[in-house]
Specification:
Layout (H helix, E strand, L loop, with lengths): L11 E4 L2 E4 L5 E2 L1 E2 L2 E3 L10 H13 L34 H11 L8 E5 L5 H9 L4 E6 L13 E4 L13 E7 L8 H11 E13 L1 H14 L1 E8 L1 H19 L13 H7 L4 E9 L6
Parallel strand pairs: 5-8, 6-7, 6-9, 7-8, 9-10
Antiparallel strand pairs: 1-2, 2-3, 4-5, 10-12, 11-12
């Protein structure tokens, strides 16, 4: 998989601790095991919040084992996703892992190239890697301090994918983004970038809580770019149950000021999901065979 320079689109080569463009000579630094593109490509107002959350997790004895920021999923009585997996004994990340299993359990990702947009603390990457040993995983996040020490055998990149994605066109079989698109500002540009790096016939998965209007707007943007909708799954009820189950522990680490972000009961976010104003869904989009110009 070729990582490219966002200045001239030339290939990058590792030079000591940094990466250098073979064409224009631009040097990209590293932070831990991640290549840093964020100095030039940044969406102000988002980074500080998530950096602070990561710091709080990293500083506590229990929090440093939290590999996710997602809201999680509580299985229905007839489901046994986590019980049949390698994660059946997980405690701290159990609900978050269940969400990943719910989204991906019907897919076969063996031998595929997969990109996680907004990989956060790399929990989804770690989970998918254990499910599909031969899957080649890459992660992008705008925050650097959630990436430290989590994954060592997958390529991690610090950048804002709304501006660009530092990979060649037609690179990935699957791209996914979990609980990121509700903070996306430049929806059309983000979807264009995702469409570009997907291989023909590749799929893009979005999982998040949206109003019906926001959901429709995303699907309209996606159609305009060239995507076709394959499937939508509403799991609001299960996510609400998870919020009830895990919010107390998260508040103990993060503090009450983060009640909205973690969907704690009584928060506006939780109430809007409970009342149906927000619906938590994941939907799968297909990149059509012929690229739109």
């Amino acid at each position: 998989m070729q990582i490219i320079c966002l200045n001239c689109r030339g290939p990058l080569k590792k030079t000591g601790q940094d990466y250098t463009c073979s064409c224009c000579g631009k040097v990209y630094s590293t932070y831990g095991n991640a290549i840093n593109f964020v100095d030039e490509y940044i969406d102000n107002g988002i980074i500080d919040v998530y950096e602070n959350i990561n710091d709080k997790y990293n500083e506590t004895s229990i929090g440093k084992y939290v590999n996710f920021m997602n809201l999680g999923y509580c299985e229905n009585s007839n489901e046994n996703l986590i019980g049949k997996s390698a994660f059946q004994n997980s405690i701290i990340n159990r609900n978050s892992i269940s969400l990943i299993l719910k989204i991906f359990y019907q897919m076969n990702l063996e031998n595929l190239d997969v990109l996680d947009l907004g990989c956060g603390r790399c929990g989804a990457i770690y989970t998918i890697q254990r499910m599909y040993k031969s899957c080649r995983l890459y992660g992008i996040d705008i925050c650097k301090n959630g990436l430290l020490g989590k994954i060592t055998n997958n390529e991690l990149i610090i950048c804002d994918f709304q501006n660009d994605i530092p990979f060649e066109s037609d690179s990935f079989n699957l791209v996914y983004s979990i609980e990121v698109f509700h903070v996306i500002t430049y929806m059309d540009k983000a979807l264009q970038n995702i469409y570009r790096v997907l291989k023909r016939g590749g799929e893009f998965i979005i999982a998040d809580a949206f109003t019906s209007n926001k959901c429709q707007s995303i699907l309209e943007y996606a159609k305009k770019v060239g995507f076709t909708l394959l499937r939508i799954c509403d799991i609001t009820k299960n996510v609400l149950q998870s919020c009830k189950a895990i919010s107390k522990n998260r508040i103990e680490v993060l503090g009450k000021s983060y009640r909205e972000m973690i969907g704690a009961p009584g928060s506006s976010f939780f109430t809007q999901m409970e009342n149906g104003i927000l619906r938590y869904k994941f939907f799968i989009l297909l990149r059509k065979t012929n690229r739109r110009t």
